[in-house]
Amino acid sequence: MTETDTYKDKGARKLLVKELREKGIQDEQVLQAILKVPRHHFIHKDFRWHAYQDKAFPIGEGQTISQPYTVAYQTQLLHIEPNDKILEIGTGSGYQAAILMEMGAKLFSIERQEKLYLKTKKLLTKLGYTGTFILGDGSEGHKEGAPYDKIIVTAGAPKIPTSLLEQLKIGGILIIPVGDNKEQVMHTLIKKMDGSIENIALEKFRFVPLIGNQAW
Ligand code: SAM
């Protein structure tokens, strides 16, 4: 990993943002965060010069850093407001976490793989991001920080975990990909004033599986 952020990197981020706009990402706040966060710090040095391609890459432990389009798509759906308390399930490389914190979120992020948790916590701290990083099964949420304004799941779930809906505030939003091991549909769930849930199904994606008590 390199600690530098060169003109070449900054230029590549501008081109990535242009590409994401062309693919339909419109939220300026999200695009500004992508422009700022040095994605090359979050991937293995072997992929250093591919960091600003709109692609997922391996991050070890059989896991991946999500494609920038996917990160932008999910983040856009969260409609982040400054100081929103957000729970991210699947810290992985920490890139999505950095985007959320760059946008002013008060972040709780949970990862089940100890090696990734330790490595990413160290990296995010070194880069100056101050969130709460947790090792555990995020399919059950994280009761200690609840209730949350927003919850984002960055792995594919077989169903919507009820504990995540319970840990959402009234008016809160849960973004989660749901499906089988080949393909998942992105869902936005909104907790209404009367506690009922509005569930909107959106585009199809392909994620690594969410593994846990309320998952695979
Ligand atoms: N947000 C990540 C990023 O920016 O790199 C995406 C990482 S990857 C697509 C999904 C991550 O979810 C993996 O690191 C995986 O270990 C983690 N994961 C899977 N099931 C989990 C669970 N029940 N609780 C917490 N993390 C989980």
Strand and helix layout:
Blueprint: H1 7-22, H2 28-36, E1 57-60, E2 63-65, H3 68-78, E3 85-89, H4 95-102, E4 106-111, H5 114-126, E5 132-135, E6 148-153, H6 162-166, E7 168-179, E8 184-191, E9 197-205
Parallel strand pairs: 3-4, 3-6, 4-5, 6-7
Antiparallel strand pairs: 1-2, 7-8, 8-9
Task: Please provide a brief summary of the model.
The protein has 6 helices and 9 strands. It has 216 residues and is of the alpha/beta class.
Bound molecules: S-adenosylmethionine
Radius of gyration: 16 Å
What is the end-to-end distance? 32 Å
Number of helices: 6
Number of strands: 9
Walk across the major sheet and give the strand order: 5-4-3-6-7-8-9
Q: Quick one: CATH superfamily of the domain at 62-205? A: Vaccinia Virus protein VP39
Tell me the structural class. alpha/beta
Oligomer status: single chain
Q: Given this structure, which CATH class of the domain at 62-205 is correct?
A: Alpha Beta
β-strand percent reads 25-35%
Q: In this structure, how is the largest beta sheet organized?
A: 7 strands, mixed
